[in-house]
Amino acid sequence: MGVVSVTWRVGGAALRSVGAERLQRAGAAGERASPPGPRQSPSPGPKPAPAPAPAPLPHSAAPSDRTETSGEAPSCSSDQAAGYPTAPPRVLTAAETERLARSRKLTPSSTSVPPIGLDISTMTTELIPDEDGFYSKAKKYWKNIPPTVDGMLGGYGHISSIDINSSKKFLQRFIGEGSGKASAGCALDCGAGIGRITKRLLLPLFKIVDMVDVTESFLAKAKAHLGEEGSRVGNYYCCGLQDFIPQPQRYDVIWIQWVIGHLTDTHLTQFLKRCQKGLRPNGIICVKDNVSQDGVIEDEVDSSVCRDLSSLRAIVRLAGLHLIAEEKQDNFPDEIYQVYSLALR
Question: Considering the domain boundaries, does residue 6 fall inside one?
Answer without folding.
Answer: no
